[in-house]
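job 3f2a | input accepted
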Amino acid sequence: MLDTAIILAGGFGTRLQSVVKDLPKPMAPVNGKPFLEYVLKYCASNGITKCILSVGYKAETVQNYFGDKFLNIDLKYCVEEKPLGTGGAIKASMKIADSEEVLILNGDTFFDVPVFEMYLLHKKNNSDLSIALKPMKNFDRYGIVIIEKDFFISGFEEKSFRTEGNINGGVYIANKKIMNHFPSLEIFSFEKDFLETKIGEVKMNGFVFDNYFIDIGIPKDYQKAQNEFIRFAY
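job 3f2a | predicted structure (234 res):
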């Protein structure tokens, strides 16, 4: 069973500086609680009991708030001494993960994916890496993921205005053996330097979930979260 998560929580939150100063982006308060707390509650409600928090900018803020346990989740920290990019952060965190399969999440997005259902699809399709996809309409902020009828991911397309498409929702289930295909670099982008370059080499599947999704990376959506997160009583 899937019991371990890696959460990328080292972001600077550059675009949020006008509303949230001197905090890692995942620690931005939403209704009086850090955004990351909602992500961890989501993990707990989906059967996760071990979590590695990849932290960098003001790492002590996260460590001091959450300590080594939150609800029923044992917490470990993978501290970046310098920014490693999403790929470098995942690579470093995977090295200290005990489990062969891990859930990977972004600490500044919330996608209410049913993890057990996604895990069953991951196993049924013998995936090396599964990506939760969010269907969207009339957007230009995200690129899209192209999937075939057998859930096989055949491509990633750059940001542009689209009337509809499936975006990468930032929720992954990965077998640790994908590390064999990571760049030898210490610093790299998971999206650009791994996902987009390893299609066909790594078995990637995309599963569409039309569940609640929000990315607090810009002030408009950060303010939106203040109103919408009242619904989440994990």
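job 3f2a | The chain has one domain: 4-231.
job 3f2a | closed
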